[in-house]
Design brief:
single chain, 12-stranded mixed sheet, 6-stranded parallel sheet, 12% helix, UDP N-Acetylglucosamine Acyltransferase, domain 1
């Protein structure tokens, strides 16, 4: 039978012999695969071979799309994914999200492929209240993270930010403005200090 005819779900990412060489590791990966299918069951699209280690909190009232081979390392602190009605949260292929990540989408948050997000990263596309009128929610501004971005531990990404392809954000940074592609930014507020 041709490999093209097999559904993507049944195509293994590596040759079967690799899984037979390390049976314990393969069983753990299989458990994480089924864990992802259960914990992300409310998502609109879940790509093949998505893995979840630990427990997550997922509240999808909008549109949640997860690409193939995405890894959620949600242990010891849960990852939180939250979309409001009409909002969109996209996570690209082969992206790795570490524990303690909190992503809230009121309108749109898009994370590209091959990204690495450190622990306790927060991504918001809305401030949830205005500075003077605290009972009123401001207009949401999309957060767009391109392919191959590296985000360090405890980074806060605020509404309306775009991070270019191949950029890196240093640990503890607060990203308030756009970061061009292939740049290193860090600080509070984050500033570009180096271009690759």
């Amino acid at each position: 039978m041709s490999e093209r005819l097999l559904p993507a779900l049944f195509r293994l990412p590596r040759p079967p012999i690799d899984y037979l060489r390390e049976p314990r590791r393969s069983v753990r990966r299989l458990f994480r695969f089924f864990n992802a299918r259960w914990q992300l069951r409310s998502s609109d699209h879940l790509g093949p071979w998505v893995r979840v280690q630990g427990r997550m909190h997922v509240s999808n009232r909008g549109h949640l799309n997860v690409g193939e081979r995405v890894a959620f390392l949600s242990h010891p602190v849960p990852i939180i994914l939250h979309t409001l009605p009409g909002a969109r949260l996209d996570i690209g292929d082969r992206t790795v999200l570490n524990y303690g990540i909190d992503i809230s989408a009121v309108k749109e948050v898009r994370i590209g492929a091959d990204c690495l997000l450190g622990t306790h990263v927060s991504i918001l596309d809305n401030d949830f209240h205005e500075l003077t009128a605290r009972d009123r929610m401001p207009e949401s501004r999309p957060v767009l993270i391109a392919d191959g971005v590296w985000i360090g531990n405890r980074v806060l990404i605020l509404p309306g930010v775009s991070i270019g392809a191949g950029a890196a954000v240093g640990a503890g940074s607060v990203v308030m403005t756009d970061i061009p592609e292939r740049c290193l930014a860090l600080g509070n507020p984050a500033r570009v200090i180096k271009k690759f």
